[in-house]
Write a structure and sequence with these properties.
By secondary structure, the chain is of the alpha+beta class. The protein has a domain at 31-111 and 168-315 and 381-467: Up-down Bundle (Outer membrane efflux proteins (OEP)), CATH 1.20.1600.10. The chain contains 10 helices and 4 strands. It has a 4-stranded antiparallel sheet, with helices on one face.
Length: 475
Amino acid sequence: MIRATLTTLALAISLAVAGCASLEPRLPEAAPAIPATLPAPGTTTTTTTAESSRAVPATATVGEVGWRDFFSDARLNEVLALALANNRDLRVAVLNVERARAQYRIQRADRLPALGVNAQMERIGADNPALESETHRASLGLSAFELDLFGRVHNLSQSALQRYLASESAQRSVQLALIAEVANSWLSLGADRELLRIAEATLDSYEQSLRLTEKRQQLGAASELVLYQTRAIVESARADVARFAGQVAQDTNALNLLVGQIVDASLLPDAFQPQISGLGPLPAGLPSEVLLRRPDVIAAEHRLLAANADIGAARAAFFPSISLTAGIGSISGELSGLFESNTGFWSFVPQINIPIFQGGRLRARLGMARADRDIALAEYEKSIQSGFREVADALALGQSLAVQHRAQAALLEAAQKAHDLSQARYDAGLDSFLVLLDARRTLYAARQSLLATQLAEQGNRVTLYKALGGGWQKD
């Protein structure tokens, strides 16, 4: 008896494992309609000699370049490590991966029979004591195990697997976005501290000039107009100091939020670092396939595969399904004799379900699965298009910023010389104070503009690194 039951169970398992046929359709080919190669200008950004010696090659393997190799400042790398360990958004993304993994394991378990032990006591009472009975039962068996003849269970398992892989890639995408955001916040903090330092130095210079003008006005060597003009630029510089001090405080708070804890002051930038990161020039004719390495594109691809597997499961629902319930055990009217001889029993209950009339439910589910697959295909294509645009925009902006950088540096040099000459001519009584005032304002604005351009350059380098799919590997 037991041997026959075990033979039946083995046959059922063999049918389930080897006898299924998938009805999943062929995956449609994506057509994102983008150029075959990335637009590659001669250089991405202006790169200094020291920086070019450690520049990361912007090749098809940029996704394999870890963020510790891309960013050169040890303090920034430490801040990034803290953010990856403590950021709450990233923690939620990691937990979503764990949830998707558990969901896949649950779905995968349906492909194998679930064995269980059941113990039961049944007592029936009646007005006639002779009709009362008591039964004790203990059994080992499986319940409602579906033979996957048409691949429905297999397709559902594949769908869960692809969604789990999509959640993993989504977590990597969140990590990459976090790295870029922390780096940009760290750079912005350094730039605002540098602007605050420039504003404080300018205020100090203006205050010295004001004290000198007040003495000159008392001696009749300077007019009252010059005095008030000097006071105006002093107060303007004082307002800038207060404004930049507020921006530094806001930048620090934003960085603390991203990191998920208070960042130690020793890890914060003292001033702006114009050589914090870099990418080497992109090789000419770099194929657009490099975008397929981006975590968000990979996640969209897995969601497309999951939606396609759902179609196979929806198709299989149109066909008959067979489920098995079987068990072996012992039954007795007395608990003490439950496992004695001649108390064994076995059961085998195959069940077939043939869908005949479902009110259009099965066809509607198939139509919904196909629509979901088409939506996932469109989102996959859009993710590739978005990636191409981000890379193209970063490359175009990098070339533009390189020109702006050179122009701003030349402007600052000219403004400094003009200021020095104007100051000398004013001290010699050859020019009016208005000429010197204009030179001071031009020099102050030139310093700020050059710093803003340098910050934009570094931010664009981080954006290009992110757009090419780099930075999400664990170090």
